[in-house]
Request: fold
Amino acid sequence: MKDTNQPLTTNFIQNIITEDLRQGKNDGRVHTRFPPEPNGYLHIGHAKSICLNFGLAEANGGLCNLRFDDTNPSKEEIEFVESIKEDVRWLGFDWGDRLYYASDYFDQLYEYAVQLIKAGKAYVCDLSAEEIKEYRGTLIEPGKESPYRNRSVEENLDLFERMKAGEFPEGSRVLRAKIDMASPNLNMRDPVLYRIMHKEHHRTGNKWCIYPMYDFAHPLSDALEGITHSICTLEFADHRPLYDWVLDNVDYSKEAKAKGRPQQIEFARLNLTYTVMSKRKLRILVEEGYVSGWDDPRMPTISGLRRRGYTPEAIRDFCERIGVAKSNSVVDIGMLEHCIREDLNKRAPRAMAVLRPLKVVIDNYPEDQVEWFEAENNPNDPDAGSRKIPFSKVIYIEQEDFMEDPPKKFFRLAPGREVRLKHAYIIKCEQVIKDEKTGEILEVHCTYDPETKSGEQGSGKKVKGTLHWVSAAHAVKAEVRLYDYLFTKENPEDEEDGSDFRANLNPHSLVVLPSALVEPSLAEAEPGSRYQFLRQGYFCVDPVDSKPGNLVFNRIVSLRDTWAKIKKEE
Ligand code: ATP
Ligand code: MG
Reply:
C-alpha cells in the first residue's frame, strides 16, 4: 500500500466536502450515490465504494442513494439487482426510500437528447462502430469529422425519432454529441450518446430499442437526484470533462438545477493480491464452472465472503483501514484476513474439532467412565461462559500431531513422549499399532496420569505440547472445507506470457475433509455461526450445504496472521 492512503474518515474526498460545507455550497447538503451496474454480483472492491459513499454521507449528515445503472439491457438481470440490494443491506447500509434506476429517467433522457439535437449539439451518425473508432484518431493524432456531422437539425430529429421507433437495425446508427474531433481528450471527440439495441430491458420491457450511454445517463441521473458529490474510480477521470459538458449543455429540470450541481471526484479502485476483481472475469469463473457459483466461498464477492464466514464488521474495518488514495495500488490479501481474525478473536466461541482423526486408546482409563470437563468458551471474553466436554477411554487427535519417528523439536505426541490434552489430562504414548501390510498407523495406545487433571491441584506438571482432541463415543461427524487462494499468482491478471488468468487458477484452492470430528456441543450449530477450532483457525457453518446431522464447516481463515507479522517486522 502507498502511504498516500488516508483513513476513510479523513481523506481527500472528506476534505473537499468539508471545504464545500464551509463555503455553503449545495445549501450545505451532502448527497452521494452508489451506482452499480446489475451485471454481476458485488465484490470486495464494491464494498470499498459502498463504505465510502454511504460512510461519507453518514459522517456529514447527508444521504446516499442506491442507483442501478441499468442502461445496458444485454447483460443485466433481476437476479443481480436482488443480490446487490441484499449485499448492501448486509454490509449495514440503508438507502431508505431512495432506490433508483437509470431506466427511471429514460423518458427524460430522450427529451434531453432531442434538446441537444435542436441546439445543434448532437447528430445522428451512420458510421459503423469500427469506422467511428478509426475516425476518432489517437492520442497523438486528431480525429476526423464524420461525414454525417453536419446533418440539418430537421434530418437529425427525424432520424433520431425513427431510431427510437425501431426502424433501423442494431448498430446501424448512433446519436453523437457534437463537441470537438481535435480535442486532446479522446472522450470529447464526438462521443456516442445513444445506441440502437433491439433487446428487452428487465424494467422497461420492449418500450425502448435505443439506450443511453453511461457518459450521458450518469451525470444527468446524478443531477436529477440532487447528488452533490459523484464519487467514482480513477478510470473515469478522463471522462470528467464529458460529465461536465453534459451538465453544461443540457438544460435539465429547474428543480434539479436549484439543488446545485454534482461534482465528479475520482479515487483509486481496490486491488487485492491473489484476486481478480473484474465482474467480467468473475462471471467467467462462474459460467465455466471453475467455482460453484457467485457465492463460492473462494470468490471475492460479498456473497462469497459472507458464505465463507466473513462478518460485515470485518469488511467495513478493512475498507476503513485501506483508506482512499488518488493513485492505484494493490492491497495484500493478508490484511483482509487480519481484519476477520481480529473480529472473530473477540467474539467467536472456541471449540475442539479434529480435522484428520487418529484414534488414541488410553489403556489405563476405566472402560465405561465418562468425565465432563469445563471448557471456557472464549478466553478473550469473560462473559462468554463455558461448556462441558466429555472425556473417555477412546479419543481422536489430529494425525499430524503424532509422529512415530519425530525430530527433536517436535513437541507433540511420539513414542515415549508426553503431551497435555487440552482441558483434560497428560498422556504418554506407549505403543503404535500399524497395518502389517501398508505400514499405515491405525491407532496409538497411551496411558494417562490421573494426577494431572486440568485446573486441579497437583496438575502443575509441565509438558511442551498441548493437543486438541474429541471423545470417540461423543464426537459428531462433519465435513470440513479448507480454502486456499483461488489463484497461485499474486497478480493473476499478469498475462504477459500470453496466457489467460485462468491459467493461474490454484488447483488446490479447495480441500474437502469428509470425516472430521467435532465436539458434541456443535451438533446443533446454526448455519452461519462461527467458531474458533483450537489450533486450526476460524470456521463457519456453511449456510447453504450444512444440515442437522450433516454438518459442513468452511474454514474462514487459519490462525497464522502473516500480515500482522509482516507489519511487526517492518
Ligand atoms: P468491474 O470493473 O469489477 O466490473 P464496475 O466498475 O464495472 O466493476 P460497477 O457496477 O459499474 O462495476 O461499479 C459500481 C461502483 O463501484 C462504481 O462507482 C465503481 O467505480 C465502484 N467500483 C467498482 N470496482 C471497484 C473497486 N475495485 N474498488 C473500488 N470501487 C469500485
Ligand atoms: Mg461498470
